[in-house]
Design goal:
Elements: E1 4-10, H1 17-28, E2 35-41, H2 48-58, E3 62-66, H3 73-83, E4 88-91, H4 103-109, E5 115-120, H5 127-144, E6 156-159, H6 160-163, H7 176-182, E7 187-192, H8 206-226
Parallel strand pairs: 1-2, 1-4, 2-3, 5-7
Antiparallel strand pairs: 4-6, 5-6
Helix pairs in contact: 5-8
Length: about 240
């Protein structure tokens, strides 16, 4: 069994994938950690699928799951979590805006906490994306009371045993830290690097992230209010 599983959703990122693979391997090889890379192809149509299979043939540490359509990032994360074999699961985007060099740092922090969230301290995005992200994070924190500063940063680390407790629904990957906090998990946040997108274009905008996120926020708030928080005093 691998100690670390790096789970990566992939949707039309054929140009980024060779650099992503090389960077993950370069980050983890010098450590004493055994690792696997779980790449979830979310119905790519740009040649990513064939490239992923080629990487998996060359490196036994790479595993690829192919969806038969485009089901979204939450579905890709969920499939990756269920396929992962490592004790610690790291999530990262395929677009190279997250830096794989930060993976050992979040893995090390996961020994002390059960959820580790990256904070993009220097955002390399457009002003509109930065402002909308800041507003969305502020609204989410006010509504749920969770402490996560930058939930949109995909670079996170979790203990696999905790992830298996959670039932995910579409869009809920953004709320994973607060869902796990409801289950008693401790959250730690670390500054991580962020890079401008080098290839292609973002799959997300205000229309498919902000407005859907507001609906998801109401769902999470309902779950918090209905969460079973009982404790057993004694048993005889």
């Amino acid at each position: 069994m691998s100690q670390v599983s790096v789970v990566v959703p992939v949707y039309n990122e054929v140009e980024s994938l060779p650099l992503l693979y090389d960077s993950i391997v370069a980050a983890l090889t010098p450590t004493s950690l055994s690792f696997e890379i779980v790449l979830v192809d979310d119905g790519s149509v740009d040649g990513s699928s064939a490239l992923l299979d080629d990487v998996a043939r060359r490196d036994a540490r790479v595993r690829v799951l192919h969806f038969d359509g485009n089901f979204g990032q939450t579905a890709a994360f969920d499939a990756g979590f269920k396929a992962a074999r490592g004790d610690v699961v790291v999530t990262i985007d395929a677009d190279l805006q997250n830096d794989p060099a930060d993976i050992p740092m979040v893995v090390a922090a996961c020994r002390e906490a059960t959820v580790v969230c990256g904070i993009r301290t220097k955002r390399e995005d457009s002003l509109v994306r930065r402002v909308s992200s800041r507003v969305a994070n502020a609204v989410r924190r006010a509504a749920t009371g969770d402490p996560v500063i930058d939930t949109g940063c995909s670079l996170k680390a979790f203990r696999r045993a905790d992830l298996l407790k959670i039932k995910l629904f579409t869009g809920m990957h953004r709320f994973l830290p607060v869902l796990l906090e409801m289950e008693g998990c401790a959250i730690v946040q670390l500054p991580v690097k962020h890079h401008p997108r080098r290839f292609g274009r973002s799959k997300y905008g205000i229309g498919n992230r902000l407005f859907r996120g507001i609906k998801d926020l109401f769902a999470v708030r309902w779950m918090q209010q209905r969460h079973l928080g009982y404790r057993i005093r004694s048993e005889s």
